[in-house]
Design brief:
The chain is of the alpha/beta class and 184 residues long. The protein is 47% helix and 17% strand. It has one domain: 3-Layer(aba) Sandwich (Rossmann fold), CATH 3.40.50.
Length: 184
C-alpha cells in the first residue's frame, strides 16, 4: 500500500442498532492500523466514528479529526487524537478531509455519511480528484442503495464506468487492498 498513506472514512456518529456495524468499525480500525495508514475522519468520540478512531489509536496509528465548530458539542469532539481540526462549517470540514486523504471509505451511517459519499463520488466524476472510493457493505446494510445505483445505470442516469468507480466489499481488509490497488 505504498501510494495509499491516508484514508478518509465516513461513518455514523451513532453506533446503530445492529452490533455488527460497531464490530465492522473496529475491524476497519484494525485493518487501517495493520496497513499503516493514517485515518482522517469526522473528529467525534461517539458512535462508529469514536470506535474507529479509538481502534486506530490503539493500533498505534495516526488519527486526524476534522469537525465543524457547531458539532464540537453535539458530536462530542474526540480529545485524544493525533490532530483535531475545528472548522467554521461543514463545507470547510469536507474540503479539508478530502485534501488530507488518498482514498475514501464509507461505513454504515446516516444522511451525513451518504451525503459525503455522493459528494466525493461526484467530485471524482467531475475529475476534481482521482482518488479511489470504497463502500463497506456490512450485513447488507447498503444492498438497497446498491440496487438503486444499478437501476440508475440501467435507466441511463449513471454511466457504467462511473458506477464502477465505487468499490464494494463486506470485508475491510479486502476493501482496503482494492483501494490501495486503485491508488497506484
Amino acid at each position: 500500500m505504498s501510494t495509499l498513506r491516508s484514508i478518509c472514512v465516513y461513518c455514523g456518529s451513532q453506533p446503530g442498532r445492529d452490533p455488527q456495524h460497531l464490530a465492522a468499525a473496529r475491524a476497519t480500525a484494525a485493518a487501517i492500523g495493520a496497513a499503516g495508514l493514517q485515518l482522517v475522519y469526522g473528529g467525534a468520540s461517539v458512535g462508529l466514528m469514536g470506535a474507529l478512531a479509538d481502534g486506530v489509536l490503539a493500533a498505534g496509528g495516526q488519527v486526524v479529526g476534522v469537525i465543524p465548530e457547531t458539532l464540537v458539542q453535539a458530536e462530542v469532539a474526540h480529545l485524544g487524537l493525533t490532530e483535531q481540526h475545528v472548522t467554521a462549517d461543514m463545507h470547510a470540514r469536507k474540503s479539508m478531509m478530502a485534501a488530507r486523504a488518498d482514498a475514501f471509505l464509507v461505513l454504515p451511517g446516516g444522511l451525513g455519511s451518504l451525503e459525503e459519499l455522493f459528494e466525493i463520488w461526484t467530485w471524482r466524476q467531475l475529475r476534481y480528484h482521482d482518488k479511489p472510493i470504497g463502500l463497506l457493505n456490512v450485513g447488507g446494510y447498503y444492498d438497497g442503495l446498491l440496487a438503486w445505483l444499478d437501476q440508475a445505470v440501467e435507466d441511463g442516469f449513471v454511466r457504467a464506468p462511473i458506477r464502477a468507480m465505487l468499490r464494494v466489499d463486506d470485508d475491510p481488509t479486502r476493501l482496503l487492498q482494492q483501494l490501495a490497488a486503485d491508488a497506484t
